[in-house]
Amino acid sequence: MSVSLILIPAALAVAAAIQAGAVDTGGTVCTVSTRMRDSTLLAAALRETGAVVETDTDRVVAVWQGVTARFTRDAEGIWAAHFSGDVDEARAVAIVGRLDTAYGRQVQAAVLERLRDRAPAAGLRLESETVTDDAAVRLVFAVEQRGRA
């Protein structure tokens, strides 16, 4: 079986859904809203879901037991996921749902790393970091006193 999913940013959902309706790959095609844009974070999220991943410029291939997904990106940066193997539309959508959740964790980790790295240059010192039960992260920074002239 073959299933293709168009993974569009939520803000572009209506326009992309109209365009996706015109796509004919010979298999099932459906549109799924997502936040995925960065191929490095996508590959990391796929690995988090247990996939073996291969990447190049605008293509990512993920293999799970019995399922292969080939992710390609169009000129507008919108990803399409083409699933093959032991997969139907419901399973493909479920995989993308788990992937989107993992991608969110990867984005959060990247943003936190950038904040920690850039804080000293901005005159900030990380005082505390707390992770809540729902995986939200709270950072408390102190403003460093700079010498007066």
What does it look like?
The chain is α+β, with helices and mostly antiparallel strands and 149 residues long. Helix content is 32%, strand content 37%. The chain is built from three helices and eight strands. It has a six-stranded mixed β-sheet with strand order 2-1-6-5-4-3, with helices on both faces. Strands 7-8 form a two-stranded antiparallel sheet. The radius of gyration is 19 Å and the shape is elongated.
Quote the beta fraction: 35-45%
Distance between the termini: 72 Å
Main beta-sheet strand count, sense and barrel state:
6 strands, mixed
User: Number of helical runs?
Assistant: 3
General form = elongated
The H/E string reads EHEHEEEEHEE
What's the rounded overall pLDDT mean? 80
Instruction: Indicate how many domains the architecture comprises.
Output: 1
CATH architecture title? 2-Layer Sandwich
List the uncertain runs. Answer: 11-25
Walk across the major sheet and give the strand order.
2-1-6-5-4-3
Total DSSP E strands: 8
CATH class call: Alpha Beta
Query: Could you say what the CATH topology is called?
Result: Double Stranded RNA Binding Domain
Oligomer category: single chain
Portion of residues within helices: 25-40%
| Structural class by helix and strand composition | alpha+beta
Rg, alpha carbons: 19 Å
